[in-house]
Every structure is written in structure tokens, then in C-alpha cells.
Amino acid sequence: MSPQPPGVFRPSVLADLRQRAQLSRAELALLAGVSPETVRAAETGKHCPSARVLRALAVALAVPVDKLSPVGKATPTLKQLRGRTGQTQKQTAEVIGVSGQMVSRVEAGVYGVRDPVRWAAGYQVSPAEWTAAWEAGKEVRRKEIKAGKQGRRGGTACQPSSQPGPSQESQG
User: pLDDT, tens digit, for every residue of 95-154?
Assistant: First the structure.
């Protein structure tokens, strides 16, 4: 089994947990407040769930979000920290008192901040954890630029459903 990066949604884990709970896709969808198509698309890896949907599925299955999207041993990025809380960028921005665009730019490593204590509270972590996550995100952006990657960074990372379940290893 090859190591998987932290914060990657595992479709096969969602399907396994749903089946262990003896729920149909429609029943899980009803419990989570989403459509059965959303559950199907997440389980098959066709679409990765948003932070809000990921949290709703975890709550419906009575498991932590990390069970569906394990953090791993590597330092998570701000996006991954926010994903653990199940908050959208807009919700996090409201807690911090900034715009959603500002949260997006900070998560992408484009901007720094003057008050990491306030930002850490928005991500529900300590200032030291927040700073480490910001640095990790900045490093990801630096590597993407160096590799010449163009295009949108958005969305939730998704592992194909044919892959094995969660791994506590992560790529460096």
C-alpha cells in the first residue's frame, strides 16, 4: 500500500462505514441532510464532499471527520485543519471577522496575517498549530509554483474508491 497524503477523503471508508451501520445510501442521505446522489457520488469518488457535507456524513455515522479524511502524521495545511471542523471558508471567515476571499488567500499561502491568535481560534487550534499549518500550506503552494502547476486549487482531495482504506502514513 502506497502512502496517502493527509486530509484525503476516502470514498471506500465512507461506503464501508455506511454498510457496517446497515444503512442504505438513501437512509444515510436522510440522516446527513443531503441527497442520495451526493452520498453515491462521494462513495464512488465521482465527487469529493465539501467540508459541510463531510461533517454531516461523519455526524450521521457517529464518527469523527478524521475517520473519513485522516490527518496523517504530516503537518496539515490550513485547508485540512478547516476541513476537520467541517466549516466552509465563509463560516471560518465569519468567526475570524474577515472575508471569505481573505481566508482563501491565507489558506493558499498568498497572504500572511497580523493576528495569528485570532485566526487560530477560527480554525479551533492553538496559535502554534495554526502557524505550522499556514507554513505547510505555503510550502505546498511554493512546490506547485515550482512544478509549474496551473489551475484551481479548490475542492477536497479525493482518493479513488478502488484504493485501500485510511493509512496513517503520509507523503512528505
Answer: 999 999 999 999 988 899 999 999 999 998 899 989 999 998 888 888 888 888 654 444
State the Cα–Cα distance between residues 89 and 107, nearest whole angstrom.
9
User: Taking Cα atoms as reference points, which of 95, 6, 13 lies closest to residue 57?
Assistant: 13
DSSP letter (8 states) at residue 49: P
Cβ(156)–Cβ(48) below 8 Å:
yes
Q: Give the number of C-alpha atoms closer than 13 A to the C-alpha of residue 9, restricted to the C-beta side.
A: 27
